[in-house]
Design brief:
Blueprint lengths: L4 H54 L7 H14 L3 E6 L4 E4 L18 H5 L4 E5 L9 E10 L2 E11 H52 L16 H50 L7 H26 L4 H4 L2 E5 H18 L3 E6 L5 E5 H17 L5 E9 L2 E8 L6 H6 L21 H11 L4 E6 L3 E9 L2 H6 L1
Parallel strand pairs: 7-9
Antiparallel strand pairs: 1-2, 1-5, 3-4, 4-5, 6-8, 9-10, 10-12, 11-12
Length: about 475
């Protein structure tokens, strides 16, 4: 069973190689077979013509010059590599080469296949034997000697077929040699090539198994001088591992933050209820502590609602109820809703609208939630300063900004401020009731509108959040 990549690749290679060599061997065999037979045909024909010429010269006089014929044939027989037989028109043997011992003077050769063609003056090629003269298969040329339009004699010139087949067999041997050489070279090449691919893939497999167990610190060593597809895959794998490690770290932080945010109100509620049950708190103070318990359960409900909102954000683009509305009216309503909270902290809340109306296209409820969350965030981290909300038009976009004079954020805190359940260290003492989900919801709602939100902040000097919205057709025509 083929289990390894090398075994599979080598098997496929051998199958293709054998198929190619089989087809090539057939082609080359036919080519060389034709070449050998054509070459042999020419040689046999030349020899037959020589013998035929000797016969014609011997018959030029009225009487056949038998002595001349035998003398010339004998000389030719010494230097010719082929067997020959010469018969008269009646197929009576009159001469033969010395290597043929089965013929006697005045023997007569039986008619053979193609006899009629020869008697008609056409050369005939035969594979096999004639009257068991040769006792082996031969390649025979039956050549008619024509004089004055009549066949006077027939010349049989032949060569053993084994000589031809031996030449063709040498072709097979050469083909087989190169086939074996190709298999060996293919084995070495495929072994090297497959290792080049398999070793990185094996490392990827082992690293993937390691990561599947929750260990995200596994990385694959990469040769920076190589930039092929496998190297890019390994780089992508390392990037994925780093991202998973970051997500795992973030998951633990989220669980830790949620646990912290849940523990505080639950501990308070449980503590006060236990004190009331134990009689530690007098009945005349019940109302005060019940109000505290009520507020703490409100914190739990707010945290729960925020988490549910975040779970729905993946489908927020499909859930948007897009309409045209005046963003200034929404801003005015949001400022009124948050004014009480600002007044409680002695914070001035401003609104600046550079145009009387700015019509935008979006989900009015979600945009209202975005503005309220930004104002709430600014008020939460500002002490005695101001928070301002401004609207304007830049190009074909409405620009909404919320600026505060609060504690500000460092660059590292700015890069994470939109993460779910993230709280900057400097804000923890001020954000007693926050869940760390407000700005995450802002980011996702703005993203659902295919818009961007940016932050500008300096530590100790405040922050400014700015996001954009598409103008509706009404304001697009006014711009």
């Amino acid at each position: 069973m083929m289990k390894t990549a090398f075994a599979k690749t080598f098997t496929y290679y051998i199958i293709v190689l054998l198929a190619v060599f089989f087809l090539l061997s057939l082609g080359f065999t036919e080519i060389f077979r034709g070449y050998f037979y054509n070459d042999q045909n020419d040689d046999l024909l030349n020899q037959a013509i020589k013998i035929s010429d000797i016969y014609i010269q011997s018959a030029e006089s009225n009487d056949f010059d038998n002595e001349y014929f035998k003398r010339e044939i004998g000389v030719l027989d010494k230097y010719m590599d082929y067997s020959f037989i010469v018969t008269d028109s009646n197929m009576n043997v009159i001469a033969w080469s010395k290597d043929i011992s089965s013929i006697r003077p005045k023997d007569c050769i039986s008619r053979f296949s193609g006899y009629e063609n020869v008697m008609a003056g056409k050369p005939q090629w035969i594979k096999g034997d004639i009257d068991n003269i040769y006792n082996q298969s031969r390649y025979i040329l039956c050549y008619p000697t024509v004089q004055n339009g009549n066949v006077k004699a027939v010349v049989f010139v032949s060569v053993p077929l084994s000589e031809l087949t031996s030449n063709i067999n040498r072709v097979y041997i050469v083909v087989a040699f190169f086939l074996l050489l190709s298999v060996v070279l293919g084995f070495v090449t495929i072994h090297w090539t497959v290792n080049e691919f398999v070793i990185p893939i094996r490392k990827l497999s082992e690293a993937a198994k390691y990561i599947s167990k929750g260990n995200f610190d596994e990385k694959i060593e990469i040769d920076d001088s190589i930039n092929d597809e496998l190297t890019q895959l390994c780089r992508s794998f390392n990037t994925m591992a780093e991202n998973l490690a970051g997500l795992e770290k973030r998951r633990r932080e989220i669980i830790s933050n949620i646990s912290h945010d849940l523990r505080s109100p639950i501990t308070s509620v449980r503590g006060f209820l236990q004190a009331m049950l134990d009689g530690t708190i007098s009945e005349d103070k019940y109302r005060h502590y019940i109000e505290i318990i009520y507020n703490e359960t409100g914190r739990l409900q707010k945290l729960s609602d925020s988490i549910l909102d975040l779970n729905k954000l993946d489908d927020s683009a499909n859930a948007l109820n897009m309409t045209s509305f005046d963003i200034n009216a929404v801003a005015d309503e949001a400022v009124k809703l948050m004014s009480g909270k600002a007044d409680a902290k002695n914070i001035k809340l401003y609104k600046f609208c550079k145009k009387n109306e700015i019509w935008v296209y979006g989900d009015i409820e979600k945009i209202k939630r975005v503005i309220i969350n930004l104002l709430d965030n600014g008020i939460k981290f500002t002490q005695g300063g101001y928070v301002s909300l401004s609207t304007d038009i830049e190009g074909n976009k409405a620009v909404i900004s919320v600026e505060d004079t609060g504690i500000g954020l460092s660059e590292e805190e700015q890069s994470r401020v939109f993460e779910r359940l993230y709280k900057a260290d400097s804000s923890r003492g001020m954000d007693k009731n926050g869940s760390g989900l407000g700005l995450a919801i802002v980011k996702e709602f703005v993203k659902a509108h295919k818009q961007n939100i940016e932050i500008e902040s300096k530590k100790g000097r405040g922050s400014k959040f700015t996001f954009t919205l598409d103008l509706s057709k009404k304001d697009e025509n006014d711009v």
